[in-house]
Amino acid sequence: MRQLIRLLLIPGAIGWLLGGCSEKIEPKPTTYSQLLTGTTKKTWRAVSFQVIDDGDASPVTPISQSGVDRCIYDDYVTFYADSEHKLEASEGPSKCTSNAPDIYLTDSWDLVNATASLTFYIPVLDGKYVTTLKTLTANSFTVELYFQDINASYRFTFNPVSQ
What we know:
Layout (H helix, E strand, L loop, with lengths): L1 H18 L12 H6 L3 E13 L2 E2 L3 E2 L7 H4 L2 E5 L5 E5 L12 E6 L1 E3 L4 E6 L4 E10 L4 E7 L4 E9 L3
Antiparallel strand pairs: 1-2, 1-3, 1-4, 1-11, 4-5, 5-6, 7-8, 8-9, 9-10, 10-11
Protein name: Lipocalin-like domain-containing protein
Organism: Spirosoma terrae
């Protein structure tokens, strides 16, 4: 009988004391969408670009040296964390006209994790494009547009805006 108590009850009691009172903490990793949108919305601005032509890459160039008018290259793109994937393009510090609305475009964005494709409006190109997401962190993201017919691609890097 003593052997039975030692073999069954003592290990059972020790297991209950050590394991029964702790709460298992399950970490919840940040998703790609959350990196892009924050908890409710996140605003980004293009900061640099690079041209890759037939395999030859140009240096990474600040967007301010792109030749695009400042009133366009300093515009913002805001990604919303809602179910509609709302996106807003808004004027940056420089407006093209004094009576231009702050928010000049409302659209949507789409992120496909399996193919790393991000579809969104890019202000410096004045259009909505399907891009390949090259990098995405809380502090920057880089997308690439590839044009197969000319074997060239354009990479744009965006940084978050403090508002």
